[in-house]
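not sure who needs this but someone in the group chat was asking about Amino acid ABC transporter permease from Salinicola endophyticus so here u go. i didnt clean anything up, its just raw.
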Amino acid sequence: MLRPSTSLPRRGQGPLWRNPTVRALIVQAVLFLILAGFIGYLVHNTLNNLESRGIQTGFGFLEGRAGFSIPQTLIDYTSDSSYGTTFVVGLLNTLLVSALGIVAATLIGFAVGIARLSTNWLLARLATIYVEIFRNIPLLVQILFWYYAVLRALPSPRDSLSLFDLFFFNVRGVVMPDPQPLPGFSATLWALLIAVVATLLFARFAKRRQMATGQALPVYWIGAAIVIGLPLIVFLASGAPLAWTLPELRGFNFRGGINILPELVALWLALSIYTAAFIAEIVRSGILSVSHGQTEAARSLSLPGGITLRKIVIPQAMRVIVPQMTSQYLNLIKNSSLATAIGYPDLVAVFAGTTLNQTGQAIEIIAMTMAVYLVISLTVSFLMNLYNARTLLKER
């Protein structure tokens, strides 16, 4: 006896609107149109309101004269420079303190993180106290502490604290000799570039040789000798083409040399110490994630503790450390905007502060500032992700 078929129709048969893929595309298209319409309405409404109030839009204001001075500039700048130049000056100052903070926080964080796992009771407790104190105090409070309680408490320039009569510490910052390159100094820079490239090539050769023969070469010592020795030889052979401008006290202030603002020092110290407390915990967790059997195997081979940590534990821990450390780097870069609290001339203070108050171009200036921080963060994330891809375990 024949029975009627009870099998369901195959997927994709029937009307087009019953196809799940087509329905998903239609829903996404409708949502996109709604979102685009809403954004278009906001833009149109904003432009109409600005026009009704007589506020001009556009980026033509960047060519206008700034008319104010900036205490720290890494490029040529005067009060006659344009607002576009103030944007570049603020951007460079932000990049400067961010780069210095990332380097210092990484070094301090790794040292403290390893110290927390030390068998030395006193060293481990001191590292724990450091972490618990500095990561639980708000960053803004730490910035104000270093600026007002420490650096602003230094003596006046006439009573500066001196180190070898070359470095002077006072309430106006740190004054140090200023190196002025002479015409022959370019040869030293080329020698440094060649030394770095030669060191990288030597490191690749040493790695391949170790993989083939099992014999390791002292890459760090030889690389350091190349990077330091070759430029030094060229520098001395070319007659030391570098002149130093020494700071001299004239009247109530120093003339000559390099003056590092106390705002930069305070912001750098606060960002580095605060972020290093979090990096220390990241490093500690990364080391603890490595199986203890790895350490025991190294001890059974009579490997020293330093080599075990540097060659076995840390490389395996990096796959846990790097993703979390990327977030801390991004936080440090964004936290640098707190510089406005002490008057450091970063992007927010110079461009989103003074320039915005003078021009009134709020939309353009804030949009540019947000875009800069977004680009910096995405660039750091991209570079760290590239490094993270190299630290991941490769399955065979």
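also The longest helix spans residues 83-116. if thats useful
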